[in-house]
Every structure is written in structure tokens, then in C-alpha cells.
User: What shape does this take?
Amino acid sequence: MEVRINDYPVEIMLENEKNAKEVVKSITEWINEKNLIFLGVDIDGNYHDAEEVPPVPVENITMMNCLVQSRADVVYETVNEGIAYCDRVLGFLQHTGDEGIDADELGDLISGMEWLQEVFSTIAGLLKMDLGKISFRDEKVSAYIEKLAALKHKIVTFMSEMKDQDDIDIEENIFYSLREIFGVFLVSEEMKRLIIDSIDSPDVLLQSLKEVKEMLPQQLELLEQIAAAYQTGNDPEGVDKLFRFIDFLFTYTRTCYQVSPVFGVDLKEILIDGISLEEKNRELQTLMNETMDIMESNDMISLADILEYEIKESLENIDKYIDLLLEQV
Assistant: This one.
């Protein structure tokens, strides 16, 4: 029997494991030590969730492919799903016009809002965040979740009493705020710690380094576009492009923090003009924290300035650092 993890062949010594269920149990212990999440297993082309692996005898199995994911990736993908859902809701509300929203659409909206509540609970658990202590603008994040719950209750009540000619006004601001909060999660200290604990394979890290270098010129141009959007009052375009930049920064940060434990490279020793990559990354993190604070205060002029002048300037020579990293690796 050949055993793989995410399609990569691995050497595994079977002891007393007699079937697929027992093999998965043994592998799960290793996966948990690596702070990974076991999604499921493909046994000769048949997929099974991790909790539902059948006791197929090992002698009857040709290939077992275990599918795992880092906790950081789970958070990242879940956050992006949350952002995409908020975008869909905002687009839907903006195009309802005079037609109003029918009962089926309201039902779908309620289901989506319940899903959003679960998403925030899941992310808070994975990041070990207390949403009652995390601030966004003038309130705690938990207050925005309560507003979401209140809006859901309002819609449920309306539906129980609605008549054909009735219509309901749904505030869009809560979905704008939740969308931005998701972005705050991606650059939080809690996310940084989770990234460090969630290790990728060496080949994935090498590829990520090369991709970051290739993407850098486009991202520098994107920062100018974001600043221009905010300076001209086009906040929706600015927010959309800012999240694209945060995606890039997530990839860069994730890769950088994993290079040291995987390849044994000390970021303090990667120097350009006397400034180490460790210092550079610390500077970027500080600037992103300031960016989040400015977003919370809704000061779009200051936001445009820090993106165009400070963050862009800090990023401009990252490609040189990456070249040195690749040489060390």
C-alpha cells in the first residue's frame, strides 16, 4: 500500500494497523502535532471524510492519499468566503431597486447571515481571539456580530408578519463593516502566530517565494491605484483592491515566517543596506497595523498616504531580499 499526504508520497512504517481506519488514526496523531487539520482520505479513488473512514483491510488498498490543510489556510479560505459573501449581499441589495425582496430571497439572506455568525465563531476559535476584546472603529467586533443577529431577527419577524405589499429596509453598512473586519483578521497578530505554527512543505515554500517576487511589481502598482481610489472618493474600488493587496501580503508573510524553521535560515542574517529581513518584516507589520487603525477611524486621506508612500516604499526592495533568501536556501 502506498501512502500519500496531499498527493506527496511519504514513508510510513505500519505497526499493528490492520485497516484504513487504524492507519488514519496513526497519521492523525502526527498531523495534530504539526497543527494541521485532517480533511479526509482518498482510498483508491474513493473519498471519505476523516471521521468516516471505512475499515478496509490494508492488503486490499493500493493507494491511500490523506488530505490535510493548515489551520492558517482554513482561516484564510474561510475569511475569503466571508468577504465574497458580503460582496454578493451588497451587490444584491444595491440592485433590488423598487422591486423589493421576496420571501424566498429573504429566507436565503437569513441562511447566509446564520452562516456568517458561524464563520466568525469558527475564525475566533482558530485564531484564539476574544471578539469582545478586538476593536474595530469605535466598537468591539462582538458588537457587529450582535448587530448582524439583530438584523436577522428583524427579517425573521418581518417575514412572519409580512403581506404581499410589504417591504423591508435592510441596512448595507453592517455588511461593509463585516467585510472590513475580515480583512483585519488577515493581518492580525493572531494570524501571524497561526501562520508560524502552520508549516508548508519545502517545495511549496520555494514556489511561494518565486511567485511573490514575480507579483511584486503588480502589487506596487496596485498600491498606487488604491491610494488614487481613496483620494478621489471611490471607496468601494479602494476597498476591493486593498483586499487584493492583503491577499498578497498574506502569501508573503506566511512564506517568510516559515522559511526559518523549514530551511534553517536566520532572517536576521539576510541584509540589504544594513537592514535585515526580520527588521523589514517588522516594519511592514507595524505599517499594516497603522493601516488597520486608520481604516477603523475612517480617515481615507491618511489611508491613501500610508499606502502610497510608506508601505509602497517599504516593499520596493523586497525582491532583493527574496533573491538572497533563495541563494541561502
Q: What stands out?
A: The chain has three domains: 2-70, 73-181, 199-328. The chain has a mean pLDDT of 85. The beta strands are 2-5, 8-9, 36-43, 46-49, 63-70, 135-136, 139-140, 271-272, 275-276.
